[in-house]
Specification:
By secondary structure, the protein is mostly helical. It folds into two domains: 43 residues, no CATH class; 232 residues, Rhomboid-like (Rhomboid-like fold, Up-down Bundle), CATH 1.20.1540. Helix content is 54%, strand content 3%. α5 packs parallel to α7, α6 packs across α7 and α6 packs antiparallel against α9. The radius of gyration is 28 Å and the shape is elongated.
């Protein structure tokens, strides 16, 4: 005597498999291999994929992606600085590593790479040679100088601080906003060095951008109502080094500090309803102001 035929439905993806479980969203029958745990019941693979496409990504308090919690942008910036330093050291030899320059004689000597990319207003490399510098059309120096360093000590100090501050800010601002802050602060410091130092005096280093990170992290923590008491002494110590140690670009450090502070204010205090357009417009305005200041300085040097 044969049994009664089964009335259980088959899985919509595997019709031969009987199941009494249905997707919580589309109510199609699903077998154990097709089940995905949901907050209520189970979902089929297609509904899970659709939910991932329509779900809004999590954002930080300042509108950035939470991908920044991995610190990838900070790592990339450190890697770029390290790679450029290796190329510079290879081009300059052992004296490029240390024992040839400022900071009590522990910085390295200039190399062909630092000569090519440092902030230089308008001067020849040597007596009677061709004139180089930003005013001579080498505008790239305002960007490249923030990735160049004079010796091992110089880059190690800067990269250690970048590792500490960068990961913290990237996690709170998101990678895109953090990189914009870093580049604008570095550019602002280099423009200040171009404006306020002699045109034959070179300057380079990530410290222009790093001073901008100092200002921004204080502003961000204030906005989040977090304690900033530990940050102020650290900033004061760095400012003391800036004003007391020879061969440090005072204008570059202060320019990075001010620019980073302005960009930090824009990113932290943008109105929530139109946060991203306000941040983009504000950062663009800072960039335009820096370009105009550079053009004015160029006209003064060539006039």
């Amino acid at each position: 005597m044969s049994g009664a035929p089964s009335t259980a439905p088959g899985c919509y993806r595997h019709p031969s498999r009987e199941t009494y479980i249905r997707c919580a969203r589309c109510e199609r029958p699903i077998c154990p291999d097709c089940m995905h745990d949901a907050s209520v019941g189970h979902q089929c693979p297609e509904c899970v994929a659709e939910g991932r496409r329509t779900q809004r990504p999590a954002r930080t308090a300042f509108g950035g992606s939470r991908v920044g919690q991995a610190g990838l942008a900070t790592r990339i910036l450190i890697a770029i600085n390290a790679l450029v330093f290796v190329i510079s050291a290879l081009s300059g030899g052992a004296r490029a590593l240390g024992g040839s320059g400022g900071f009590f004689g522990m910085l390295g000597a200039s190399t062909p790479v630092t000569l090519w990319g440092e902030v230089l207003g308008y001067a020849p490399y040597y007596q009677g040679g061709p004139v180089h510098g930003i005013a001579a059309g080498e505008w790239y120096r305002l960007f490249t100088a923030m990735f160049l360093h004079y010796g091992v000590l110089h880059i190690l100090l800067n990269m250690w601080v970048l590792w500490q501050l960068g990961r913290y800010l990237e996690a709170r601002l998101g990678p895109a906003r953090f990189v914009a802050l870093y580049l604008l602060a570095g550019l602002g410091g280099n423009v200040a060095a171009y404006l306020f130092t002699p045109p034959n005096q070179g300057a380079a280093g990530a410290s222009t951008a790093i001073f901008g990170l100092f200002a921004a992290i204080i502003i961000v923590n204030r906005r989040l109502k977090l304690d900033i008491s530990a940050l102020i002494p650290l900033l004061v110590i760095n400012l003391l080094f800036t004003f007391t140690v020879p061969h440090i670009s005072v204008a570059g450090h202060l320019g990075g500090l001010v620019t980073g502070g302005v960009v930090g204010l824009i990113l932290a205090y943008a109105p929530p309803t139109r946060r991203t357009p306000f941040q983009v417009a504000g950062c663009t305005a800072v960039l335009v102001l820096l370009v105009v200041a550079s053009l004015v300085r160029t006209a003064a040097l060539l006039g």
